[in-house]
Specification:
Arc Repressor Mutant, subunit A, five-stranded mixed β-sheet, 39% helix, 13 strands, alpha/beta, 3 domains, Nucleotidyltransferase, domain 5
């Protein structure tokens, strides 16, 4: 049955606007108590309570009980049976796919290695098949997906949907990736950089959830940063914000893939670190380097520590520019833990300007190698019209 249209400014339209505001808050934050919902939406506790009762009865919301500060509280989330979304992460060397319900609970996930310089056409074809297989394993079809979020290892121009700097992701240049994948699977697709989506995941439900402003630095085969202010990503005019991997460390240094000299990636990115070892050392992937460091290999630990020092210099520039409360370190190299983070912290202390509250805290990412896929899930949910499709029709 078609929804009955309500006149703007009426009591009914106000109630509907309040319900939509509450649903949007849950899409953004996942699970919240009724008190937290009142704070997030600006609605009165009584209004929140009434809306929660109404939408729980209609099947749109799910409630449970939790304990906060020693008191019993009602925890509210979207109902898990509203549908499924997919979060996809194409890193430089790995493809990760996670499928989650409306509560962001992951119900299926898989990963597989990728060749260097993978191309969009072959990989999007493969992704389409994998999504279909995963949905079938869940007793559904790809047509049941509400949407797909996609993370790529390069900045994305928000105006065109294309890679903003073609040299940073060859084989994907000049392609509207969202449109290309959507044409294959017939579902809505949304694309952003892996650093942005890793930062979004950490800000929404991870280490940065309580921070007013945070920076997520992703260190792996490539290096990038996602900047989150007031819970929203700061992308810049052309989606280029956070390209910390291309901050100049040495203007006379080696030529980077971006065509500049001496970029941070040439000193702390995966290929640069692996190139420091002779062929017989068997350092083919960052996983080999991390394993050797964990086993106590001095050369491997030194290479990672040196990368941390370089990262700290670039992170100090980010701090001086954006003044974040928190720095979150993610990506493959972050698995080295304090071997990487301790020298990063020391470099930051030497180069960053400290405010009244001191320097930002530096922590490891909560979601490890799956942060970017989780951020892609969050982005997909942001674009799902749950409220418009599912809210009950009341006058």
């Amino acid at each position: 049955m078609a929804r009955r249209r309500v006149p703007p400014g009426s009591q009914a339209s106000l109630r509907e606007a309040n319900r939509v505001r509450l649903v949007e808050a849950l899409k953004r934050h996942g699970r919240l108590t009724q008190v937290e919902l009142a704070g997030s939406t600006g609605l009165s506790p009584a209004t929140v309570s009434n809306i929660v009762k109404e939408l729980t009865a209609s099947g749109l919301l799910h409630t449970s009980f939790t304990s906060r500060s020693g008191r019993r509280a009602t925890l509210v989330s979207l109902a898990g049976n509203l549908g499924l979304v997919a979060g996809v992460h194409f890193s430089s060397r790995q493809l990760r796919i996670a499928i989650a319900d409306a509560t962001r609970t992951v119900v299926a996930q898989t990963s597989l290695p990728l060749p260097l310089d993978h191309r969009h056409d072959a990989e999007l074809d493969r992704l389409s098949l994998l999504l279909g297989d995963m949905m079938e394993s869940l007793g559904s079809s790809i047509g049941d997906l509400l949407g797909v979020g996609l993370a790529l290892p390069a900045p994305i121009d928000p105006h065109t949907g294309m890679v903003a700097t073609p040299d940073l992701l060859r084989g994907w240049a000049g392609v509207d990736v969202a449109e290309s994948l959507s044409a294959r699977i017939g579902r809505p697709v949304h694309v952003d950089s892996e650093a942005n989506l890793g930062g979004l995941a950490e800000a929404r439900e991870g280490a940065g959830r309580e921070a007013a402003a945070s920076v997520y630095i992703r260190v792996g085969h490539t290096i990038g940063a996602g900047i989150v202010v007031g819970g929203d990503l700061f992308r810049g005019v052309n989606g280029m914000a956070g390209q910390v991997g291309h901050v100049t460390i040495d203007e006379n240094g080696p030529i980077c893939r971006c065509s500049n000299r001496g970029c941070l990636e040439m000193y702390a990115g995966g290929p640069a670190l692996l190139s420091l070892f002779p062929p017989e050392a068997g350092m083919q992937r960052l996983g080999d380097l991390l394993q050797a460091a964990e086993e106590g290999d001095g050369s491997s630990r030194r290479v990672i520590a040196d990368a941390g020092r370089h990262l700290g210099i670039a992170a100090a520039s980010l701090c001086n520019l954006f003044d974040p409360e928190l720095i979150i370190v993610g990506g493959d190299l972050a698995q080295a833990g304090e071997i990487l983070i301790s020298p990063l912290r020391h470099s930051l202390e030497r180069a960053a300007l400290a405010g009244p509250g001191g320097l930002p805290e530096i922590v490891a990412a909560s979601f490890g190698e799956w942060a970017e896929a989780r951020g892609a899930i969050a982005m997909a949910l942001d674009h799902v019209s749950v409220g418009a499709r599912s809210l009950p029709n009341t006058a």
